[in-house]
């Protein structure tokens, strides 16, 4: 049975992974699609996330939709963080190399989001030409997979060290 301190440290590690991974991923989308490519604005990115849940019609003002989109983004990131933290102690392969594990987790996140979540939420099945594929998968590898893997590895290493 975990002690209060163990649960507190776990909560802090999960929250840290959530904030870092969620923020890095959102910033990468803003930098790539708004600042570099000028395809969409930051508001359009956030509204697009909300629209996947609520539909394309803006049900309220654009700012509120953006806030809903940002909250949904962090909720999805939270789910991926918790899932990794649950898997880590149960799958020895994840513990062998935190960098490789993070790379593969980022790929898994891309697969889940682009092959399951987005098609179910929007009804759109997107074809992935190489440039678009790389623009989508690399941020998930480096902004989601690696930070989550590194933070989970650090948490479980410290937890194991405290037991000895």
Separate helix tally: 6
How many domains?
A: 1
Class based on secondary structure composition and strand pairing: mainly alpha
The percentage helix is over 70%
**Could you give the count of β-strands?**
0
Q: Indicate the proportion of strand residues.
A: under 5%
Can you give the mean pLDDT?
Answer: 92
Would you kindly provide a brief summary of this structure?
The protein is an all-alpha fold and 164 residues long.
Task: Give the secondary structure arrangement, pairings included.
Layout: H1 4-36, H2 42-54, H3 62-87, H4 92-96, H5 98-122, H6 130-163
Characterise the protein shown here.
The chain has 164 residues and is mainly α. It has one domain. Helices cover 83% and strands 0% of the residues. It has helices spanning 4-36, 42-54, 62-87, 92-96, 98-122, 130-163. It starts with a helix and ends with a helix. The mean pLDDT is 92.
Please give a handful of descriptors for the protein shown.
164 residues; 83% helix; mainly alpha
């Amino acid at each position: 049975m975990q002690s209060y301190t163990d649960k507190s440290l776990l909560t802090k590690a999960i929250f840290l992974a959530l904030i870092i991974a969620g923020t890095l991923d959102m910033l990468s989308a803003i930098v790539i699609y708004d600042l570099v490519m000028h395809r969409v604005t930051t508001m359009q990115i956030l509204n697009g996330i909300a629209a996947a849940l609520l539909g394309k019609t803006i049900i309220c003002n654009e700012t509120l939709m953006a806030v809903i989109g940002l909250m949904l983004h962090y909720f999805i990131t939270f789910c991926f963080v918790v899932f990794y933290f649950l898997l880590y102690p149960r799958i020895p392969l994840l513990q062998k190399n935190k960098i490789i594990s993070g790379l593969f987790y980022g790929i898994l996140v891309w697969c889940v989001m682009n092959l399951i979540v987005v098609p179910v939420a929007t009804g759109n099945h997107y074809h992935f030409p190489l440039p678009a594929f790389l623009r989508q998968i690399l941020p998930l590898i480096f902004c989601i997979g690696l930070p989550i893997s590194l933070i989970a590895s650090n948490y479980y290493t410290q937890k194991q060290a405290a037991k000895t």
